[in-house]
Structures are given as C-alpha cells and as structure tokens.
C-alpha cells in the first residue's frame, strides 16, 4: 500500500483530493495537513511514500517545502497540485524532483493518471534491483502509451486511454475482460470495450472469443 500525505490549506480541496485518493486502489491516506509546519512534523512520523503538495499556502510556499525535503535527503516523492501556471514555477518544481504537476482545476481522470503513473514506477523500482533501458524508457516517458493519431484525437480521451492502459500493464498478466476493467476503473463497460478495440488495432492487445453454452459469446483480451 502506498502511503500518501496531502498538504493543502483549503479544507474543501483537501477533502476532494482525499476522496479522489480513496477511489484508487493501492493508495492509503496517512495524513492530510493544512500547513508546512504540520507537514514537517508528520513527514518524520508517518514517513509517506508520496506527498500531494499545494504551492500556495498561508505565508508559506510549497516549493520551499520541496527544497527542504531534498536538503534533508528525505526519501519521498512529490506531486504538485496548484493553481500556479507559471513556467518558472513548473520548471523549478521539476528541477527539485517533482514527479508530476497538476494545475487546478483538474478532473478525476487526470488525478488518477498521475497516481497510476507513480504507482507503476514505484512498484517497478521496489521489486527490481536493476532495470533495462527499454523498461526504464517506458517508465519515464511511457512512449507509445497514448497514440497521437488524428483518429485517436477525434474519438478518444487520452486520460481515459491512459487509465485503462495503466490498469492492463499493472495488473493483467493473463486474460482479462472489459467488464473486469470497467468495474475496477469505474468506467462504463461500453466505453472500455471501445478503447480495447482501439488497442487491439494498435496490436497492443489481442482479443479472443469465448463461446458459452448460453447467451452471447464473451470477449477476452491479453496484452501482447
């Protein structure tokens, strides 16, 4: 279970982000605090794996907290969640090791994408002592995970695509069905099937037809 601390002074936003987190398997909220003083205290007690960090806090700046974490050599990853859209701030965040940057307001799909991307890297790094370049490239940039064709742009949402693909990569070594993915991700079954058909055309997955004694045939998929 990945332990997460939320640092956000707005109680409504803090509550929304906490509820978003509850909807994603594999994550547990260990603390939700409104100030950097409390964040510094809890980070030594709770030792979270990930911090969802706001930039604008009363008389404080989340980037200063990020710098303090790096100065203290604390092993924790940071996702910035903020209304700050300035390029200078974004560059500064990444220079000090932020793994993602969400600009408010954002939807659940984008939040989920950030968490699942982190989870994929976290699990890979935790179970492997070494990694080959192609696997590292995929974890860093996830090349090819989101197609850029015109057909994709016209008919699909890249964050929904990414959520489905992340779930397939993380949890489905053998066969799986659209129904299983739909239930796991909270996405309509008809939507999941449409994305799976698209992935099959990209030759990322293969579909098999399973005929039962009664009812319609069931489609099963596996990753190539």
Automatic annotation (TrEMBL):
Keywords: Activator, Cytoplasm, DNA-binding, Phosphoprotein, Transcription, Transcription regulation, Two-component regulatory system. It comes from the Bacteria. Residues 3-119 form the Response regulatory domain. InterPro entries: 2C-system_Tx_regulators, CheY-like_superfamily, DpiA-like_HTH, Sig_transdc_resp-reg_cit/mal, Sig_transdc_resp-reg_receiver, WH-like_DNA-bd_sf. It is found in: Cytoplasm. Its main location: cytoplasm. The modification 4-aspartylphosphate is found at residue 54. May play the central regulatory role in sporulation. It may be an element of the effector pathway responsible for the activation of sporulation genes in response to nutritional stress. Spo0A may act in concert with spo0H (a sigma factor) to control the expression of some genes that are critical to the sporulation process. This is Transcriptional regulatory protein. It comes from Acetobacterium malicum.
